[in-house]
């Protein structure tokens, strides 16, 4: 074994030790969040369609929605499920386009940060609208 | 131990490889649509989260932002979102089944013209069902939004 391959071997072991989730586990999460999102988004759309579409967008109607705890839980789950699914999908696309250790780490950090940011921003809206 | 080869440049074709129409079969169209609709829906979702956040600034802020989206182009954009989300969901379910080995068929002897057994009528039917469902959902959305 030459020095270079030995160093790469050690590096891959170290990286393997740092891996939190295997890619197969991440794909399971991707599929589960996708299937779950279909159901909660269907509920969200049905809530829009129980009244005429224009009425469903009225300020008072939407504020009343935000005060309904069950609907709030549906909105929060949509936010989390689609954010996880969407940003993991973006990560997968970006890793298909280019592969290197630095690129993978950068893509992972950026997508997780964006996911957390979007969930935080959406949760802020839900909490504030609930208090209006 | 064999030395690991360091690639000089990975995935040479990149996005150009995705968009190259000369090798398109139904499976490739489905692959490309799944990614295109996924990115489009994520962009819409981010915009939707921002749009709904205006409600915390009061009724005037909400209604003035709503005026931007309740237009002909806004409704046409929503119809695109309906079509994209329906295709992405239906085709995504097909891909989950495929990943689980369902609908791939059994391996056969590789005879000329060497058509892969995995790209069979079940897969093509799944893609067609996703496209038809997307068209039906867009038609329904058109009826709701334009009150036809």
Structure overview:
The complex is a heterodimer of chains A (132) and B (148). Chain A is mainly α. Chain A has a single domain, classed as 3 helical TM bundles of succinate and fumarate reductases (Up-down Bundle), CATH 1.20.1300. Chain A is built from 6 helices and no strands. Chain A is elongated and about 50 Å long. By secondary structure, chain B is mainly alpha-helical. Chain B has a single domain, classed as Up-down Bundle (3 helical TM bundles of succinate and fumarate reductases), CATH 1.20.1300. Helices cover 67% and strands 0% of the residues of chain B. In chain B, helix 2 (26-53) crosses helix 4 and helix 4 (72-99) packs antiparallel against helix 5 (121-146). Chain B starts with 13 loop residues before the first helix and ends with a helix. The mean pLDDT of chain B is 86.
Question: Topology of this protein?
Answer:
The complex is a heterodimer of chains A (132) and B (148).
Chain A: H1 3-18, H2 23-49, H3 53-56, H4 59-66, H5 69-97, H6 101-130
Chain B: H1 14-19, H2 26-53, H3 59-69, H4 72-99, H5 121-146
Helix pairs in contact in B: 2-4, 4-5
Compact summary:
The complex is a heterodimer of chains A (132) and B (148). With 132 residues, chain A is mainly alpha-helical.
Task: Provide the number of structural domains of chain B.
Answer: 1
The name of the CATH architecture of chain B is Up-down Bundle
- For the report, how would you describe the main beta sheet of chain B? none
What shape does the CA trace of chain B take? Answer: elongated
Distance between the termini of chain B: 70 Å
CATH classification, class level of chain B: Mainly Alpha
Strand content of chain A: under 5%
As a whole number of angstroms, the C-alpha radius of gyration of chain A is 21 Å
The largest contact between protein chains, plus residue counts on each side, is: A-B, 40 and 35 residues
Strand elements of chain B, count = 0
Contiguous runs where pLDDT drops below 50 for at least 5 residues of chain A? 1-14
Which architecture name of chain A does CATH use? Up-down Bundle
* CATH class membership of chain A: Mainly Alpha
Strand content of chain B: under 5%
Class inferred from helices and paired strands of chain B: mainly alpha
Report the span from N to C terminus of chain A: 68 Å
Helix content of chain B: 55-70%
Integer average pLDDT of chain A:
86
Main sheet record of chain A: none
Work out the helix count of chain B. 5
CATH topology of chain B: 3 helical TM bundles of succinate and fumarate reductases
């Amino acid at each position: 074994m030459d020095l270079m391959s030995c160093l790469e071997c050690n590096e891959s072991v170290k990286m393997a030790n740092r891996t939190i989730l295997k890619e197969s586990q991440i794909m399971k999460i991707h599929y589960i969040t996708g299937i779950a999102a279909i159901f909660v988004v269907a509920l969200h759309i049905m809530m829009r369609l129980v009244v005429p579409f224009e009425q469903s967008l009225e300020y008072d109607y939407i504020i009343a929605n935000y005060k309904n705890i069950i609907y709030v839980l549906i909105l929060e789950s949509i936010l989390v499920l689609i954010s996880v699914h969407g940003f993991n999908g973006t990560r997968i696309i970006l890793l298909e386009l280019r592969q290197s250790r630095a690129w993978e780490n950068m893509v992972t950090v950026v997508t997780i940060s964006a996911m957390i940011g979007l969930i935080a921003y959406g949760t802020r809206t839900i909490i504030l609208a609930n208090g209006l | 131990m064999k030395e690991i080869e360091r690639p000089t440049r990975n995935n040479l074709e990149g996005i150009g490889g995705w968009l190259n129409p000369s090798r398109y079969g139904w499976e490739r169209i489905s692959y490309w649509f799944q990614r295109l609709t996924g990115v489009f829906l994520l962009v819409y979702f981010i915009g939707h989260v921002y749009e709904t956040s205006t409600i915390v600034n009061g009724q005037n802020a909400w209604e003035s932002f709503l005026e931007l989206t309740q237009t002909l182009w806004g409704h046409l954009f929503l119809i695109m979102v309906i079509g994209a989300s329906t295709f992405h969901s239906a085709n995504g379910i097909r891909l989950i089944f495929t990943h689980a080995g369902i609908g791939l068929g059994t391996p056969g002897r590789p005879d000329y013209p060497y058509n892969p057994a995995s790209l069979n009528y079940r897969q093509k039917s799944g893609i067609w069902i996703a496209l038809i469902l997307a068209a039906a959902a867009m038609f329904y959305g058109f009826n709701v939004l334009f009150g036809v």
